[in-house]
Specification:
single chain, about 190 residues, 4-stranded antiparallel beta sheet, about 0% helix
Length: about 190
């Protein structure tokens, strides 16, 4: 049987997460023990990426006819889409921050889930920078990546941007139109 590793991630707590075929495993180097998470047969598609959270829960990006994200809470799986409060079911990428908050790159912009306050915020790119979504068209956001400094980076064919928390606790955005960048081509990924 051919074994393919779809993704491997070393979480901040040093737990190693591996996805292959339709299996997700975690390895704790401090104990030398493996744990397996059963992948339900009702979820179609293949695992693209694993996104572990600090509390041991895990988000998994799946590719089928489109991109979707599923969440494992330790007991079972749920789709992270409109049923969870997002504006769409199509999620291209996920970033889980050190405190467990979650950023989503979706077909309808960027979404932020504040786990402590159980609250959603939604953003899109415009020629004026990053704005909260208030009914206008939201550009799809394809990539998201957590920087070593805690900044969350996003990109699509129109822009790339990052967000950090300011000293007052509010989000501070910096965005760059792709056409104005000094990059030879538009960014396809922030990695």
């Amino acid at each position: 049987t051919e074994r393919i590793v779809d993704d491997i991630v070393v979480a901040p707590d040093r737990i190693i997460w591996i996805a292959n075929n339709r299996t997700i495993k975690s390895y704790d180097p401090s104990t030398g023990k493996w744990k397996s998470i059963d992948w339900p047969s009702v979820i179609e598609g293949s695992i693209a990426e694993i996104h572990p959270a600090p509390d041991g829960t895990v988000f998994v990006s799946v590719v089928a006819n489109d991109r979707r994200v599923y969440f494992f809470d330790g007991q079972g799986w749920s789709l992270q889409g409109m049923n969870a409060g997002l504006l769409t079911d199509t999620v291209y990428d996920v970033v889980v921050t050190a405190n467990g908050d979650v950023w989503y790159a979706t077909s309808k912009g960027m979404a932020y889930w504040d786990r402590a306050n159980q609250a959603w915020s939604f953003y899109t790119w415009s020629s004026k920078g990053i704005l909260p979504i208030t009914g206008q068209y939201a550009y799809p956001v394809i990539n998201a990546e957590l920087g070593h400094d805690g900044a969350v980076w996003f990109s699509n064919t129109h822009f790339f941007a990052f967000v950090v928390r300011g000293e007052d606790g509010e989000f501070v955005w910096k965005s760059y139109p792709a056409a104005d960048s000094d990059m030879a081509t538009r960014p396809a990924s922030v990695e």
